[in-house]
Amino acid sequence: MNNKPSVVMIGLGYIGLPTAALIAQNKIYVHGVDINPRVVETINQGKIHIVEPELDIAVAEAVKEGYLKAKTTPIEANTYLIVVPTPFKAKNEPDISFVESATRAVLPLLKVDDLYIIESTSPVGTTEKMMQLIYAERPELEGKINIAYCPERVLPGNVMYELVHNDRVIGGVDEKSTEKALTFYREFIKGDLHKTNARTAEMCKLVENSSRDVQIAFANELSLICDKADINVWELIALANKHPRVNILQPGCGVGGHCIAVDPYFIVAEYPMESKIIGTAREINNYKSFWCAEKVQTSKLEFELKHGRKPSIAIMGLAFKPNIDDLRESPAKYIAQKVLQNANNEAHYIVEPNITEHKVFKLTNYREATKQADIIAFLVAHDEFKTLKISEDKVVLDFCGVYK
Ligand code: SAJ
User: Fold this and answer.
1) Mutational pocket test of ligand 1: of 167, 222, 260, 380, the residue with most ligand atoms within 8 Å of the beta carbon
2) Which one of 91, 104, 155, 220 is least enclosed by Cβ atoms within 10 Å?
3) pLDDT at residue 233, as a whole number
């Protein structure tokens, strides 16, 4: 393996596995590493443990052709990619311990001219910290290996396309490292590759997702204002966006997923005094979910006062965004939980057309739910909901603009 181009990929999750498969499809040997033996076993059978279109085909092909193998421990290679999670400790502080343990795992294997790249979303300065860790343990390698940061920016659901076609930002700890990393990515990426330093590349990833979070917060704030002002926020935004330099995003029931609702905290934790808009945007987007749950509650009370009986409620959608089956960090799921916590013997119909069952929620078909319920709360603008015919006597709470 030593004489051939070879890659060790630490972390075989939502980004690591597609990237490993893509590199392997380009006939570069990839040794994938994951701490979970079941993940390793699944991949070695040519199968996958996550939902992502076209990934199954890519992994099956890469394993069959012998370019991708998985194990729980790394081996010697030329390039080491760190693609592990960076979760949060208490008080929304980023936890880089997985990046550190992945680095410690490859440390004894590093040799002169090797390339070490972090792709995990990381606080600014992480790559330099890992460089210091490597040189503290292996002083003979100082200045003789290449160290870089290169974040991914793929959209779940379209990963296999975007991995190849999106532009990438590559930041080395020195110019030689940047160049070496660029040559590596050039092998399998068709998008443009943009050179910078490691700190700028780290901040770039955080800023991309924070920028989207801030823009969504603006739309969510407008939705709160318009609710009080008795203005249809969807119509308002569509009209404002007719201005050639205005492009307002869509309000919803909050911001979910494990990137946009998380990455801004990496900036706020390090620069609390300076990141006022970024921090406030997080608060607005979190508040929006709470507000939606409160609106459902108010609507229930109003219905009971008006009709002298308890209403039944349909909760439409649990996923973190339209047309996916991913419920991680989903504001809709949070709202459904809150509504059920407030329940007082009303019937609830929980709907999520993209999954067949859930261990907490009893799911109902979306047509049946809208037929049965008195109050229909749309949380996620799934395509199925857009063509539903709803009778006029129902109370509709459209939090995601499905009827806009
Ligand atoms: N949302 C709104 N209004 C909008 C757009 C989105 O409320 O107008 C909500 C969605 O419903 C969802 C959340 O925002 O709850 C995030 O969805 P998303 O589609 O904006 O983004 P993600 O989390 O699926 O992927 C993001 C992408 N980042 C950007 O668009 C800047 C993706 O390119 C990144 O690679 C990914 O985060 C990541 O891994 O960091």
Assistant:
1) 260
2) 91
3) 97
Which of the listed residues 208, 209, 400 should we mutate to test ligand 1's pocket, taking the one with most ligand atoms within 8 A of CB?
209
C-alpha separations of 313 from 223, 334, 343, 346 in Å: 22, 16, 10, 7
What is the rounded CA–CA span in Å between residue 92 and residue 244? 38
Q: How far is the centre of ligand 1, averaged over its atoms, from the C-alpha of 282 (Å)?
A: 13
Express each pLDDT in 385-397 by its tens digit: 999 999 999 999 9
pTM score of the predicted model: 0.94
Out of 180, 205, 288, 321, the active site residue is: 205
Q: What average pLDDT does range 16-23 have in this prediction?
A: 98
What is the side-by-side order of every strand in the sheet holding 395-398? 348-351, 313-316, 375-378, 395-398
Helix axes 233-240, 198-229, angle to 10 degrees: 130
Cα distances (Å, whole numbers) of residue 133 to 143, 206, 210 = 13, 23, 29
Going by C-alpha positions, the residue among 152, 146, 145 that lies closest to residue 122 is 152
Q: Which helix (H) or strand (E) holds 313?
A: strand 313-316
* C-beta separation of 318 from 254 below 8 A: no
Q: Which residues line ligand 1 (CB under 6 A)?
A: 153-156, 208-209, 212, 216, 249-250, 252, 255-257, 259-260, 320-321
* Model pLDDT for residues 133-166, shown as the tens digit of each residue: 999 999 999 999 999 999 999 998 899 999 999 9
Supply the pLDDT for residue 1: 43
Q: Ligand 1: distance of its center to the CA of 260 in Å? A: 6
Q: Which of 69, 180, 253, 259 is catalytic?
A: 259
Measured distance CA(220)–CA(184) in Å, rounded: 41
DSSP, collapsed to helix, strand or coil, labels residue 118 as: strand
Task: Return the closest-CA partner of residue 351 out of 338, 342, 373, 329.
Answer: 373
pLDDT in tens, 42-98: 999 999 998 889 999 999 999 999 999 999 999 999 999 999 999 888 777 889 999
Q: How many helices (H) and strands (E) does the chain have?
A: 14, 12
Is-catalytic flag, 205? yes
